[in-house]
User: Fold this.
Amino acid sequence: MVPFDVLVLVCLAYVAFLFAVAFLVERRARARPLGWLRSPVIYTLSLSIYCTAWTFYGAVGYAVRSGLEFLTIYLGPTLVFVGWWLLLRKLVRVGKAQRVTSIADLISSRFGKSSGLGALVTLLCVVAATPYIALQLQSMSLSFAVFAADSSEGWALPDRNATGLWVAGGLALFTILFGTRNLDANEQHHGVVTAIAVEAVVKLVALLTVGVFVVWVVADGPADVFARIRASEIAAWEIQPGRWAGLTFAAAAAIFCLPRMFQVLVVENADERHLVTASWAFPLYLFLMSLFVVPIAVVGLELLPAGLNPDLYVLTLPLSLGREDLAMLAFLGGFSSATSMVIIEAIALATMVSNHIVMPLWLRAARVTGDVRGLVLNARRLSILAVLGLGYAYYRIAGGGAALAAMGLIAFVGVAQVLPALIGGLYWRGATRLGALAGVSAGFAVWLYTLFLPSFGVGVVLPEAVFAEGPLGVGWLRPRSLFGAEGMDPLLHALFWSLALNAGVFCLVSALSFPPPVERVQAAQFVDVFDLSRRTRGWARGGAEAEELLVMAQRILGPGSAQEFFRAEADRQGKEGFLPDTTPEFIDRLERRLAGSVGAATAHAMIGQIIGGAAVSVEDLMAVANETAQIMEYSSQLQEKSEELSRTARALAEANEKLTQISIQKDAFLSQISHELRTPMTSIRAFSEILMEPDGLPDELRTRYARIIHDEAIRLTRLLDDLLDLSVLEHGAVQLQESAATLRELIDRAILASNSIAPEREFAIERDPPAEAVTVMTDTGRLTQVLINLVSNARKYCDAAHPRLRIAVRAQGEAVEVDVVDNGSGIPRESQALIFEKFARLTDTTRAGGAGLGLAICREIMGKLGGTIIYVPGQGGAAFRLRFPRQLPRQVAGVA
Amino acid sequence: MAAPPRHPTFLARRSYRRRRLVDLGRLLPFAGLFLCGLPMLWAPPEDHARDLAATGLYLFGVWGGLIAVAAFLARTVGAGLDEDGEGPGR
Assistant:
């Protein structure tokens, strides 16, 4: 027999070893990245805290009592893990994206960062965890008792209460030392997780060793074991379909709803890819843990005296066969199972209690003052003590006689009450805070009434009369047969009613209530976590002072990391120093950083205290929408601008084309004008030379030559007059002579004046005398000049066989339009843009009397008169349209 | 102007195979649920107690099969988790 002292020493040495592991890992984590210590293997092993002392000891007892039913506890989680694509992947992604610190934080964050909901879930988890922790204390006390028992008394058990107290105290100390050393930004505990992984290996090795010993040493291999199974009393077990399905479901829910499982699965997850490995490795771990349960149970039943607690066969079987070394290993395995569970559960619950109960209460009582970190850590230490204290109390009151499995299942059904809100929150955007509150409350109440309180025993908390006749004699409210459901298994009865009411109320209230903006933003964040690459921001107004925020952040994160964070943020904004602009993006990141330490609801409330605006208002959402609208408007403006640019570019290209042509025209004109000047000069010189000759010319010839010289001189003068006229017009130094006249007079004058041009051609002129009776008050001389020019041009250039000229006048309000249209071939399209330019002359010079300045002069005159002259294509010939105001505009007159 | 569709209609053969394997992964828990529920339908023999050993063997066999398929899927699909696994239908 191992002396009790030795046993205690071994335990202490083992704990010291775990302590060293945790300490070294923590130290290494601070020094450099953890490498393999954050590998999928460690992650999978840490998940094994699912297998508590209940698994290690209780599974065998469960198998003795209920055959293969114990498998449901492991098949449920297996299904969840092999189907990780469906749920776990999203859960982990959301947890990381929102920096969730616990399952209460997840629910609270999803439903609008509600502190009330966080507190409710925390309360539920604490109450549900109580029997579970009691279970661990009980199993450890039992296992200690096995060794402590005096052999003369057989397997009788000494005072276990004292042992339970010692164990609870020791575990509280270890948890406080390692779980609350610092306030981690991510709420991750590398050291503890690694120690848990070591414990996972120990318990697996221990159970497998005992199993191998039983199958191959005690029995004669698998065939013999099968024979013994068939012969044993376990074989009489019959599957109960209701319990089989119900327990599988409850275990499947528990694998991610239990606070400690959520802690290792989501909060301590370092990399989403680890989940891929865990999807098969964790079921494999469960498989191996369950493999030898039935053989151990059967062999135990056969060899050990009847009446011995089957929960302890793992321990008592090797002991009774004299293998104390094996028993010691099994004891350490059970010890590992219980300690790892209690430590993580206590850390998870303490985080929840401090973040969702203590901090909100304290925030309500006072503004942010003093060092919050100390307060949070102390709150957690006290919470750990309280959680273990509650577990111990439950163990003292209810645990004494109950089987381990029954206590575990009570906890499973309790935490399953989070399931509707969790699943609804992840997959249904319509799930609301009120719905979650109502659903969880209803489920919690039913669970308390039908399962938790009765678990203390009939007459302990609920009086006997309530069980027999219902509260106040209302029979259909009896806790074991709610609404007349008689004859159901109590556990199944509680599971069924609590979840049915929970889910029903949750859906109904959610559908009937209307969520505020924050909640809707969060709902979209959670449900569409894979679609949203960018987080919608929560803080639209940056009214807070950066300095105040820094002061607060230092209290929570510690001065070093807070300053580092602020400096990085300032750097991101391109600023020097520690105080970034309080942009919504910055505040949003700060809130998430703080949420990693104190939970979403508290972080939100603390920032809200400083900023003033409590949450996202409809106005803020409108602002976001406006921003989007502005961006869209801006982009359409950009598009418009770019179209304008391409229009300008096109105009520029046209202008350039025109310039090039003008330049060519100018060159041509220069040579032309030289020619124009040269021709009359040449003839003047020649004839004057003839006249100068002394021998007398006949008078007739002399007169003729003198006329030629005179005519040529006039031509030169006219050319120079035109050039001068144009130059004067262009430089604006023209004096307008305002006078009144009817257009008929002016047109008469113009036709008369141009009769001298090509007088040999017969011209038909179409006019509309009544329309011409329009009196204009303008520079009639200049206007006549334009008309003469147009009529002359028609006479000169119209190439029709029977030339015809049409002059049409239209009065249009204050303006008058005069069309001068001939029936010639008109002006080619490519030349239409050039005809009003100074040096333009389209046809050869022989038929032209002028130097190509006429239309340019016309355009300048019309501009001075406040009007325009344009070429109108498609009129069956050359068509010019004059448009000018009847009354010479003041400003034009003024300028003139 | 119509925005281009977020997910292409047709995928390369390899991506297509990946998507279908992910679909299989999503179906796996339901297959497991079905297989684990089957023993509920096996009526106990009239004369003697049911064969617990055989039921146990069957359940462990199903369990092992689930683990093997999950491991296979993890090796083939899980490696490129972020490549294009985030298709529609989560």
